[in-house]
Write a structure and sequence with these properties.
The chain is built from 8 helices and 14 strands. By secondary structure, the chain is an alpha/beta fold. β3, α1 and β4 form a beta-alpha-beta unit.
């Protein structure tokens, strides 16, 4: 496998991601929270940005598109929302494309936003999930419904358990506090929280997580249905 993922902090709690194919030199930024930091990370590695893949329109995910497009003339892919700046290619759930010989599936995951999408690379056993799911959490329902988020999480949980999920924010410790308040007797949750606390104490990212961990520890997945997810999401919004 010639793919490498570079993960680095951006803004206050975002992560930036660069996906690089060593054989071809192709490099994709998954979302663009901070154009200057993304360019800095590319330069430090000797990589040239060739693509941008947006998961949704929020400024902390697409705000760097214009500057990076201007600098690298890279190809910008994103969901069908007018607020995606400098987009060259519109993607919808069920679409797929090739990245340096690697197959990429596009999965529609509404809930956080109506047209939120994720990028799944089956051969690499990884997915870039934006703000649909976090380690021990899920995105706020700014545009969607609990039913939509439940269906979106169910799509993710149908992926192989070893699939690494690259979530876009470092929210895990705050998510852990809430998760323990609603499912504190869950041994899988307790193990995940202990691991997250140790990583953050050592300043190690808790991203990526995996489908297997979230299937058993994430309170919005273990909710079991859309109604309970909605109840827990409302509690979390005011936690």
């Amino acid at each position: 496998m010639t793919l490498e993922v570079a993960l680095f902090p951006c803004l206050s709690d975002n992560y930036g991601f660069l996906l690089h194919d060593a054989q071809t030199g192709a490099t994709a930024a998954i979302d663009t929270p901070d154009a200057k930091e993304i360019a800095k990370q590319c330069e430090a590695r000797g990589w040239t940005l060739t693509e941008i893949w947006n998961t949704h329109w929020h400024p902390d995910h697409a705000g760097g598109n214009v500057a990076l497009k201007r600098r690298y003339n890279c190809h910008v892919r994103g969901p069908n929302q007018d607020a995606i700046p400098a987009r060259d290619e519109t993607l919808s759930g069920g679409d797929s494309f090739d990245f340096a010989g690697h197959h990429v599936d596009v999965i529609h995951t509404p809930g956080h936003t109506d047209e939120h999408i994720i990028y799944h690379l089956p051969s690499a056993e990884l997915a870039f999930v934006g703000d649909t799911i976090f380690a021990l959490g899920c995105g706020r329902l700014f545009e969607g419904t609990p039913q939509e988020m439940w269906e979106s999480l169910s799509k993710l949980m149908a992926l192989p358990e070893q699939t690494r999920l690259y979530c876009a924010h470092e929210y895990t410790l705050s998510n852990a506090k809430f998760a323990m308040s609603v499912d504190g007797d869950n041994p899988d949750l307790i193990a995940a929280v202990t691991d997250a606390q140790a990583k953050r104490a050592a300043n190690i990212p808790t991203v990526p997580t995996t489908v297997g961990i979230e299937k058993r520890a994430n309170p919005f997945v273990t909710a079991g249905n859309a109604e309970e997810l909605g109840r827990r999401r409302a509690l979390k919004d005011n936690f």
